[in-house]
């Protein structure tokens, strides 16, 4: 395609953490341009946010309904190609559905919705409208995560037996519910879970992305350690997979001293791998009868998928923003080809989380909550 993709954004205005992350990630590979937005539910704040981003004032809107109505009325060489949704959880469903009905492709921050029924309706709407849908589980964008995935798909580790995934943070160790970011502990906005909905679903997505295994049953224990907190701030989950493997998932936001400690260890018959998000350019590989390997981003020892998602030579660290950018870049590759009339089925470069990942994540989350509420009983995931 001989032009950049035109992006509109809903949410992500002044004071937002995730909005700027999305905008930086979308711009890194020079394939996407932000041209319009409804950046806040407050019209004045949206206008000021858009001005700070140097957008044409006519393309800054007071709400997403106005944005979609006016954008779809523009000529095909002017209107947005897709919308990026970076609002709190409880608003995702309405915005997604209206965007799809208005003819726009969608990128949405996770979780997809606040319950599985809504997510299933979104999946149906995506199929009905034939629009692309990307869910930004950004940790799948790291090059060494893709290396881990390829090693398992190529059966280097043999049959997978055990998976241990953790995501400890400490930022909610005290009661800070007055902070603007702490809508995540408000069930009216966040939904049925805080910690598991916010970071535990990243663990679920990462495990199933890397291994290709399905979670079929689980037993969970959710806790709210901070007094008067309405939703969970710590979670422990035992998991059974469809191949017979067993797993342990721990997610916590009251782990004092922890920043963003997502890590995963996967043990097979012939070897194991370990990856840490805070040291993302390294994949540790251990073998049954060979010395330990340390594989690094962009080195000559890694595979095609990992290399395709790096930008600079080995020894130059790539991190969170670059991984996030890989999600946008791979989505942009497919959307550009689709607009250009090319065949878009089955290409490896279209590697990004899709609507099915969102549905699966919501079913997992509901099973976690159900198990905990029923005194830690095992719950099957349909």
Q: Count of DSSP E strands?
A: 14
Please report the distance between the alpha carbons of the first and last residues. Answer: 41 Å
CATH class of the largest domain: Alpha Beta
The biggest sheet amounts to: 9 strands, mixed
Residue windows where pLDDT falls under 50 for at least 5 positions: none
Tell me the fraction of residues in β-strands, as a range. 15-25%
Q: Give the CATH H-level superfamily of the largest domain.
A: Dihydrodipicolinate Reductase, domain 2
Class from secondary-structure proportions: alpha/beta
- Give the overall silhouette: globular
How many discrete domains? 2
Helix-strand pattern, N to C? Answer: EHEHHEHEHEHEHHEEEEEEEHHHE
Radius of gyration (CA) equals: 21 Å
List keywords for this structure.
382 residues, alpha/beta, Rossmann fold, Dihydrodipicolinate Reductase, domain 2, 2 domains, 9-stranded mixed β-sheet, 5-stranded parallel β-sheet, 14 strands, 34% helix
Walk me through the structure.
This protein is of the alpha/beta class and 382 residues long. It folds into two domains: 5-131, NAD(P)-binding Rossmann-like Domain (Rossmann fold, 3-Layer(aba) Sandwich), CATH 3.40.50; 141-314 and 360-380, Dihydrodipicolinate Reductase, domain 2. Helix content is 34%, strand content 22%. The strands form two sheets. The chain has a nine-stranded mixed beta sheet with strand order 13-12-11-10-6-9-8-7-14. Strands 2-1-3-4-5 form a five-stranded parallel beta sheet, with helices on both faces. Helix 8 crosses helix 11.
